[in-house]
Design a protein that fits this description.
6 helices, two-stranded antiparallel ribbon
Length: about 140
């Protein structure tokens, strides 16, 4: 289901939950639904796995975070282009850095931190800003 013809509602919600709410569990919920609807696209699965990796680290599951970020990068790195309305190359780079830090966490501990999805399309930016002002109730319809 498209929002304004360009972006699926679930995709916009994913970016909103990732960048604004920092709710990686909800990111998983909306992106999994979109991933299933859209034929299990590697892009969507990779984005979902970045969010779940961050969720795991935030909750103290370092091995789970490493596993999910590794899987995300395996899907996203070959795409070598921007995702719909986002700077995917930057997200891949930031995720790679995060994973490298996780792999050294026993010698260089660090607290979990948030990554940002850089939005490059003004339309997507406006839709995410709309959700900031009118938070979604997941599963209750369109924007």
């Amino acid at each position: 289901m498209s929002v304004n013809g360009s972006y699926d509602r679930l995709y916009v919600e994913f970016v909103y939950y990732f960048n604004i709410e920092r709710d990686y569990f909800e990111c998983h919920e909306v992106m999994e639904e979109l991933w299933l609807e859209e034929g299990r696209a590697p892009l969507y699965q990779g984005l979902l796995q970045v969010a779940v990796g961050l969720y795991h680290h935030r909750n103290g599951n370092v091995s789970g975070a490493i596993k999910l970020l590794t899987a995300a990068l395996e899907k996203l790195e070959p795409l070598r282009s921007d995702g719909p309305g986002i700077d995917l190359v930057k997200l891949v780079s930031d995720s790679r850095t995060y994973l490298q830090r996780l792999e050294r966490i026993t010698v260089e501990p660090f607290d979990s931190y948030d990554l940002d999805i850089t939005i490059v399309d003004p339309e997507l930016s406006a839709l995410v800003e709309y959700l900031r002002n009118h938070p979604p109730n997941h599963g209750e319809g369109e924007l």
